[in-house]
Amino acid sequence: AHFPRKPGSTILPTDRLQVAYAKYVPRSSSDDPRTTLNLIFTHGTGMNKSVWRHHIDQLYELSHAPTSTLPWKLGKVLAMDYVNHGDSCVLNKHKMGHKYYWGDTGKDVIKILKHEAVKNTADSRTIGIGHSVGGHGMLYAGFLEPVMFDSIIAVDPMFFTFHKFALDRPDDWEKHRRIHKAIEKNVRDLFANEEECFRWFRTVPFYTKFHPKVLDYFVNDEVIYNADGTMSGKSTTKQQVVAYTSKDVSTVEGCAILPFVTVPVLHLIGSNFSLSFPKEGTDFIRSTIPDCTGATVPDAGHMVHCERFEETIAIMVNWLSKR
Question: Which of 59, 65, 72, 118: CA 20 to 30 A from 273?
Fold first, then answer.
């Protein structure tokens, strides 16, 4: 992972983190003259890299089918676990700190692209796709290294907040304490057995509306079978809370960089706004990014890419076909 991290990101400032990612490549190479598109995916809090697996499978199938009429073919695809989630969280056990600066995800994206020698050229283009905190990180990557991206698909990225945290206001500390407790009540990372584990993932409101294959890929990549018969989640409760409650420090910096994201951006959301994802946030993002195209799925919410799979794929394919 990128080094150095911001203060508070690790227990010791000298700690080096690792970032895990999945790599997909076409089953066979060919002399297909179509433009190659290479993709890199980032996920949201409470998820992992495999939440995108079904999308990736579908995009490969659509672009490499013998009857495909798409003007592009899918090349290399990368999907990462950010440093305190999924396999990365397991690798970084005992190193993660009390803050997770969302913009650092963008630095990790760039590190992975360079490690994989993925270049953005006229005939081989790189497109970043990220959701929520992952969308925040992907746009940050586009701000830092615009030459590395053809464009970015940001699925309801988290940038906007009504609440401004102040160190000298005791009420703010109390609000954060309540947020911590509320999140902890709805997040689990230890289960008595396999039955309890899979039942929880399939019944907790956060995941119940997921497309079945999206949920299966995500859960199967998230769970650990322990020797004593218990089950663990790779993304610990503590670090999920850290990711959520790092919103204030992350959005202040994130909002400041949006006017300087010069790559074309597709801003994909659901039409159902909420307190955490208000209409004001959508208006702010779309009016602040210089080259931003909006797309909205009716009667969908923040988890639009997981709950409205077919519509999301159709919007993605339409965008990719214009690149």
Answer: 59
Mean pLDDT of 86-104: 96
Residue 191 forms beta bridges with which residues?
231
Backbone angles phi, psi at 76, to 5 degrees: -80, 140
Q: How far is CA 47 from CA 7, 117, 164, 182, 297, in A?
A: 25, 26, 26, 18, 21
Q: % helix / strand / coil in the chain, to the nearest 5?
A: 40, 15, 40
* Element spanning 126, H or E: strand 124-131
| Mean predicted confidence (pLDDT) in 232-247 | 92
With 60 as the cut, is the pLDDT of residue 45 above it? Answer: yes
Q: What is the DSSP string of 65-112?
A: STT---SEEEEEEEEE--TTSHHHHHHTTTTB-S---THHHHHHHHHH
In angstroms, the CA 126 to CA 145 distance is: 12
User: Packing angle between helix 212-222 and helix 194-203, nearest 10 degrees?
Assistant: 140
Pick the CATH number of 21-166+247-320 from 3.30.460.80, 3.65.10.10, 3.40.50.1820, 3.40.50.720: 3.40.50.1820
Burial class of residue 181, CB neighbours in 10 A (0-12, 13-18, 19+): exposed
Mean pLDDT of 107-117: 98
Average pLDDT, the chain: 93
DSSP 12-71: STTPPP---EEEE--SS-----SEEEEEEEE--TT--GGGGHHHHHHHHHHHHSTT---S
